[in-house]
Amino acid sequence: MRLPRPRGPVSDTLVAMLAGPPRDLPGGAWRELVAGTDACTDEDLQLSLHICYELHYRGFDGVDERWEWQPSLLALRQAGEERFEDALRAAVPVPTPPAPHEVPHALTALVDADDAPSLSKFLKGRATLEQFREFVRHRSIYHLREADPHTWAIPRLAGRPKAALVEIQSDEYGGGRAERMHAELFRATMRELDLDDTYGAYLDVVPAVTLATNNLMSLFGLHRRLRGATVGHLAVFEMTSSLPNRRYGDGLRRLGLDATATRFYDEHVEADAVHEQIAVHDLAGGFCAQHPSQAGQVLFGAACALALDGRFAAHVLDLWTAGHSSLRPAPAPVGALGPPS
What we know:
14 helices, globular, mainly alpha, Haem_Oase-like_multi-hlx, Heme Oxygenase, Chain A
């Protein structure tokens, strides 16, 4: 994956520096991240975090892999994370932590109380083919590395919760069969929609609100202190997956796509119905039974997942309703005259 086009002074500095050998970033580069904008829609902040996080996944073409642990880059990432997490804790209301045995019920109550607009209903019944293709571009940022952010939690768990997470992740990775990996099934959907299935192909055109939903998983997954939030995030992820995926598959069938295109979504209808029970009871419930003080973190992670997914859905639907694309303009080809879009 190539480095993305910058969206502000911090990502501009990052992209320029990563093109060279590992060295200290300019002093004070992180100060540009403390501006008083909405952290979840700040294009420069969310892209900068995504770039920093990607160094822990597959990295970028031509970027020295030693950048992953370069101290001044980690300091920059920490500054961005602090701003992002502070914004989340200020914006996401979380109820008083329940007793450990009440955590599954509390997670269900959070999901039942969610009043975000339903993007899946729109895609099932009203979306045009081009709108569905837009949606898939957004989701490709996650689905082409599906399950990886939650996998960070495996070595941080023990006993029943660890076994539960491994069971879920094994299904996500195709049970050991590469062609059944969910990321590979999503690639097939992309190809059926005449989209580029290359990892990170649409990074330049997805907005900050899309990056934020992905950065949230990396933030939780890469910090042991937030392992409870990772557990809660995955639990609500599975709880809210089966029905929307049924709608996505139905939407593609309505638009004339075949079983190859819908297989990714159809696979999730049954798999995530099972994963939901494992994630809520064995993973989240078991984790809180082991660590009662983590119940609040579990609910925080779940509430953040719902909040950011709701913001993403509202962004997409608002722009589609107004007759606009939900994506950023594509950058100008390298070498084209004039500044990039």
